[in-house]
Specification:
mainly beta; 9 strands
C-alpha cells in the first residue's frame, strides 16, 4: 500500500484565518512596540502557512524519543509533503521493513542512511532494507499541556 492511497487530502480546504497581530514576540525586553501595531487587522491561516501543496500533504503523529535532538518529540504532529524530493538533511517519513518511521536522511561514507538524533539508535542503512519514502517533513507542531 502506498501513502498516496491512505492519505487523501481535501483538494481545497476552507480558509480559517485567526487573528495574527503584526507585533512580533521577542525573547528579551528591547523596547516598547508601536501602539498602532495593535490595530492592524492581520490574520493567519495555519493551513496556508504550513501546507504548501494540500493534495500532497498529510499529517502524522510521532511516538518515541529518537528524534528529540532534531526538535521532534513524542506526541508531536508532523506536516509531511509527498511532493518534495528527499535530499540529505531532510527529515523523512518512510516505510522501512513494514514499519513507518521518521528519520533524517544522511549520506555517511557515500551510503544513504536514515538517522536518529538520539545516540541510542544506530543509523539505518537504506540500501539493505525494503524502504519506501512517504514524504518530507515540512513542519512540526508541538502542543504544550495546558
Amino acid at each position: 500500500m502506498r501513502a498516496s492511497e491512505i492519505f487523501l487530502a481535501h483538494p481545497a480546504p476552507p480558509a480559517q484565518g485567526l487573528p495574527h497581530p503584526q507585533t512580533t514576540i521577542r525573547a528579551g525586553i528591547s523596547g516598547f512596540p508601536s501602539p498602532a501595531e495593535d490595530y492592524v487587522g492581520r490574520t493567519l491561516d495555519l493551513n496556508q502557512r504550513l501546507v504548501k501543496r494540500p493534495a500532497a500533504t498529510f499529517f502524522m503523529t510521532v511516538t518515541g524519543d529518537s528524534m528529540e535532538g532534531f526538535g521532534i518529540q513524542d506526541g508531536d504532529t508532523l506536516v509531511v509533503d509527498r511532493s518534495v524530493d528527499a535530499k540529505p538533511g531532510h527529515i523523512l517519513v518512510a516505510l522501512v521493513d513494514g514499519e513507518v518511521i521518521v528519520k533524517r536522511y544522511e549520506i555517511l561514507g557515500k551510503r544513504p542512511y536514515l538517522c536518529s538524533s538520539n545516540d541510542r539508535y544506530a543509523p539505518i542503512p537504506v540500501s539493505d532494507l525494503d524502504c519506501q519514502v512517504w514524504g518530507v517533513v515540512r513542519s512540526v507542531i508541538h502542543e504544550y499541556p495546558v
